[in-house]
Each structure stands twice: as structure tokens, then as C-alpha cells.
Amino acid sequence: MTTLSLTSIQKSFGEQIVLKGVDFTVKSGEVHALLGANGAGKSTLMKILSGDYERDGGVITLDAEELTIKTPAHAKAAGIEMVVQEVDTALVSSLSIAENVTMNTFITGPAFFSWKKRYKVAQELLSRVGLSLDPAMPLSQCSLAEKQLVLIAKAISRNISFIILDEPTAALSTKEAQHLFSVLRELQKQDVGIIYISHRLPEIMELSTKVTVLKDGYVTLQKETSGCTSEEIVRSMLGNELVELLNDEEDRILGDTLLEVKQFSVPGTGETLSLSVREGEIVGVAGLVGAGKTETARALFGADPSKDSLYMKGRKVRISNPQKAISAGIGFVPEERRKEGILVDYNVVENLTLPVLKQFTKFGFIQRKREKTEAEKWIKQLGIKTQKSSLLLNHLSGGNQQKSSIGKWLLTDGDVFIFDEPTKGIDVGAKQDVFQCIKNLADNKKGVLYFTSEIQELLAFCDRILVIYDGKIAGELTKNEATTEKIMHYATGGHYGTVRS
Amino acid sequence: MAQYVHKEHVENDINTTKLSLQEKIFPFLYRYGTLLVILLTVIGFSLANDKFLSYQNFTDILRSVSIITLLAIGVTISLIVGGFDLSVGSTASLATVTSAAALVLYRQETIIAILIPIAIGLLVGLLNSFFVVKVRLPDLLATLAVMYIINGLHLTFTKGFSIYNNMPLSEGGTAPGVFLPSFLFIGQGEIWSVPVPVIIMLIAVIVVHVILQQTRFGRLLYITGGNEEAARLSGVPVQRYKMYAYLLSAFFATLAGILLAARIGTGQVSAGAPLLMDGVAAAFIGFSVFGAGKPNVIGTFVGAVLIGILLNGLTMLNVPYYAQDIVKGSILIGALAFMYYEKKK
């Protein structure tokens, strides 16, 4: 039984103080959930523990013995491994699964290591995380969920005492998440201490033994999971502002059809589908990871253009690139926020005005004052929390980045807005703002296509829910008939409970 | 909730902690390090040689960096869109020999001797953008290949010989044309005792700076380099902007080549090749000027001036030319080290 303790940890970046004296303890065989809104300091705390950042103050002890953790190697030596959220950054996609899993042998192992032995070791590790893949397969062919398990397998290839998981289920389907939980429970039985960062309350209640909530760099809640309720956790995350879960009972009045596609081929999936959205309508498009949601959304916006045309207010247009989509009145908030949605090295103003920069241009020159005034109006309206509008997006939290990613389309004043997993990795408070923003769009007679795997969100405020399975629309449900079970039934191809390949 | 009790206390603690010396000096060096180096170099050379600090020497330095600066502006623009144009050196060589050929071999007027190389230069730019944008080759590889092709082309055209006044021709006799005085004026003339190349360079720096900082065109060039996919999904025609960047890059390389021909009064083969590395160095040193952290024209100009001052001063101190590269390399390392150190934090 080992105990890892962090005592009054402090960390600041420049003038911004991120951690203001945090205490955190995890024992072997424990699943300690770490929660907090974006910007609360969760990731920073874990990066300090895993040696990514150096702490400004505080003590880290392992069984009362003080640890110096200045580099990832120090953390590894102490038996601490981290499974990062962006799994691709921790694995080498051009190598085989076996090489990735046994990566540590390249560093510490013998100079020669036979392939036969490597495959055998990899096979064993993979079976411990419940993966039955060919170790010789290139990692690039793995799904996201598989890569995550590969990363866990890599972590347990050493004798670890503690493992940190940063939002491991963010992009997993329910099925995949359940599998991950069983792997984690197995690790727990082997006396590994697990630090589990997540935004998802149900899984935390199910999995964890202890909960710590961070807010603004302080610990606001720390107790046994069995002794606290979801409401208590949410309250600690948000402070005194109570979350009012969006409950959208009244029926919206729907107008004419805005966007319609018939037998529209999606290049990413190789399938065709039909869908439509009307004025003032929020159409939810549900589907598990890999069902073809992102591919469909991107085809509709012309990011991966389809060969077929779509109908915008009854007018036939072929969207061969995003510019055509924008001029047709379509906006798109992509799933990969930092890679596709925003420019992290540019400020809020520059991000917001990008699609409509022409409006602020006279004789080719940007009218910066007008641009700034207009952008600041939207910053206020969207509730983007930033000290000043000239701050780079990199310094804002995920939720505020997402608001910028959405906000730029509000400036274009389009008709149809496509959202792809807009609440991925953002906190409860920011989620509320995003929902409100989408509701406002519908109230202003805009059409919304909402692609997500978060079924609860769809049930909360969609007028109509389409379910995608293998690139095709498997079912359509009205607001009144939709339930989690029905959506899952379609999303799994009509055989709820069977394993998807 | 016990932690809340300590809140005020902890915050005070952190606020009153004095910034360490390192935390104060590094951001300062990051912003003004390059300028500081220039200042120190000027002081050092002035003390070592009393001829260094004179108007004549000052204009000499600016004249010597004018060609490199023009070339480096092109490199900077290619860096802005996230590319890299390695072909600028041979494009400059090509411009040098085509303008010389137009004057000496074909007896053309000055204006023709300027327009023809520019037209050819833009074709090189199109070739680069074709490989980068359409064929989607990595920038470095595409422009490396084009660099060889253009270098070979201009050597084939001249059969490896430089072009000069009254040169003998293979079919007998001497070349019909000469370097016209109006053409040489671009490279050697002075207006109010300011060398013409310096004027051209300053105009180019100011115009490009204003375009990059104040116009939509400039913003979109930067945005394209900042995150190509996000820019594309926001409706920026990123492919077209990359093409513009390579066209501009080739244009400025051509300008440098013409200036070079006018300056030395011959169509020297491979004259642009040594300019490439200095141009690239100037553009990268420019990253660090005022802590910009990204390619920018003012920085590039400062970088070129720094290189120019060093070469000039070292030559005055009788440091052999072959040892001067050591200094160039060290300056580049120094500038980049600060930038990347700061970025990592």
C-alpha cells in the first residue's frame, strides 16, 4: 500500500496563477476522480505530477519520502504514468502496435530485442487491457478507443503504482467506455492507484472511490464518492451559481425548409443519406464514434466536398468548398476545436471576424477600430471570458475557445449552423452557454444541425433526432418519442447490446 | 472547504514574491536582444575602428544589405504562409543573367531588362506554387527541386559564362549591347547622396510591412500559415494565398537579382546562390526582433542589417571572409535560441 501526496502545490504562468495551494492524495487501489471546470487547474496539476511542468511551490511525497519530479523521467521512475487526452501525441503512429506497447524497452531494454519476443510481450500486455489485435498491425489503423488502450498497455508495461487518465472517455462510445472501465477496475484490483480526470458525472459516480473538485486553483470538495451527490459535485465545480439544466419544453414554431439533401453522397463514408432542416428547427444527429457523423457534417459544409448538390431554401447549390458553403449561408463548428475550429496563435478579435473580414475592409485595409468594436460586442454577447480582446486564444480555456469557434459564424449571419460535438471537453458552465447560444439561433429562425454522441444533450433540446449508423440514417425520432434506449437501438444498428466491430 | 480560509493568505504570498532576476531579464532579452546585439556591435566596432561610425560607412552597410533584404522579404512571405522558398537564390541568379542578356545580347532598353526578368520570375513562382499547392509536395522539397532546375536553366542559357559588356560571342564578334547607364543607376546611383538600392529596399520594407499588418491580404497570409485547416474551414482560399506567397517570394528574389546585375554591371552566373543562406538567416533572426515570434518584414530588415554590420565591421578588422560565417551562424543560433526558449515556456 503506497500513498502519493501532493501538498500545497502552486503554479503560475506569467501573471496568471493557476494553482493556489492544492492538496491531493491518492492511495494504491483507489480510483480518485479529479473534476473541475475548464481552467480550474486539473491538467496543470497532473502535468506537474507527471513531470511536464515544474511546480513553483509545494511538496510531492511518496510514502512520506519527498520526490523531486522535474522531468517525465522522474515521474516514471517513481512509478507514475500518464495517459494523455490526445493519445496521438503519446504514440508513434508510423510504428506497429507492438513497438508502441513495448516502447519502454527501446529506452531501457537490451540493444537487441527479437521481433518474436516483442510480439509475445506485446500480446500479453494487449490481453491485459482486453485488446485482441495483431501486434504487427500499424498503429495508424487503430481506432481512437484502441489507441487509448494501447497507451494504457504501454503504461502498464512497467511496474507502475499510479496511472493518470485525462478525460479518457471524451471521444469514446458508451460501449468502448464500458470496456475501458472494466480494464481500469482490473488495474485497481492489482493495487494500482488511478487518478481519473473527467467531466462526466455518471461515470465518476460509477467508477471512483474518492472525488476531488478543483475550482480556480483551489480544492473546493474532497471526499469519498459514496458520500456525495452529483448536485454537490456540480455545485463545487461552479461555485454558487447553480446549474439550471436546460429544459426546453415548449414547441418551437417551425418555418420553411432551409437546407435539404436527397441521396447525398458522403465521401468519408462512401454512403448516401437524406436529411433536411427547417427554419427555427434544431435537428440532432446522433451516432456512435465512427458512425460517420463528422464525415457527414464535413461533406455538408464542403470541407470534404460531396459530388452531389444540396438545396438551400429550395435553390440547388453544389458546395465544392467551404467558401461556397459560407456564401450559401452555412456555418460549421468542427469537432477538433484546436486543429480546425480556431487559430490559437491569434487573438479573439481576429478569430471572430475571420469569415467576415471583408466587411471590415476598405480599399484592402482592415479598419481595426470598427473590427474591434464589433468583435467586443460579440465577446460580451457570447460571454467569452477574456481579460482583453487582444489576448491570444491559446490563453483562454476550452469553453471560451469553443465560444469563439461558434461566435465567428454568428457574425456571418448565415441560415444553417452545423455543430459537430460542440460540447467536447468543455465544462458544465460553458456547456450551458453553448446550449443557450444554439437555442437563440433557433429562436431567430435559423436552422441547426447538431451532430453528437452525447444522447442526453440531444434529448434536452432537439426538435427532431436522426440517428446515423454506418454512414446511413438508421432512424428518425421526434422530440416526444425519443428516449435513450430508442436512440441507442438505432445507433447500434438495431441490435442494441451486440458488439460493434 | 478548509482551503478557502487560506485563499487570501496564499494569494498575497504569491503576489509579494519578487520576480527573480532571470524572470526579469529573459523577457527583456527576448524582445530587445537583437537590437541590443546591434547596439553593442556598433559600439564595439566604433571603438575598434574610428572609420566605422561615418555616414559613408553607414550607407555602405545599407547598400550591401539592400539586395539580401529584398531576397529575405520573399523568404519571409513564404514563411508567413507556413512554407519555405529555397529557390529564391537561383531565381535571383536567373534574373541577373536575363536582365544582363536583355541588355548586352539583345540590345534592349532598361525597362525591358527589368520587365522580362520579372515575368520570368513570376513563372518560377507559379512553378513553385504548382508543386506545393496542386501536387502537394512539401514546400522544402518542391522549392529545393525548383532551385536545381532554375540553377541549371540559367547556366544552360549562358553555357556557364557570365555576361558582360563587349563580351566575345561564340558566332564571332562581340556582344551588340551594353549595360545602359539608366540600368546601372538602379544599382549604383544615388539620390540626395542616398544610394538607390537603399531607397528601393526601404520602400519595399515599408510597403510590405503596411500590407502585411494593415490589409486583409496580409492578415489572410498570416492566418493561412497560422492554421491552414482552420483557415480553410473559415472560408479562406488558402491554396490561392499560398500561391500569392510564392509569387511574391519569386518577385522579390527577381528584384534582388536585377539590383545585383545593376550593381556589379555584369550578368554573373550563380550570383544569387550565396544570397539564399543570408536571406534565410535574416528572415529567421527577424523572428526574434521585438519578440514577434513569427516572420515579419521589419524583423527581417533588422536581421539583414545585423548581418551587414557584422560583415562590414569584421572586414574592417581584417577578419578573413571565410571566418565570418562562424559569426553569422552564432548570431542565428543566439536569436533562435531565445525565441524557442521563450516559446517552450
From TrEMBL, chain B:
It holds the Pfam family BPD_transp_2. CDD domains: TM_PBP1_transp_AraH_like (cd06579). The chain crosses the membrane at residues 28-49, 61-81, 112-133, 140-157, 191-212, 244-265, 271-290, 297-315, 321-341. It comes from the Bacteria. It is a multi-pass membrane protein. InterPro entries: ABC_transp_permease. Keywords: Cell membrane, Membrane, Transmembrane, Transmembrane helix. Its main location: membrane. It is found in: Cell membrane. This is ABC transporter permease.
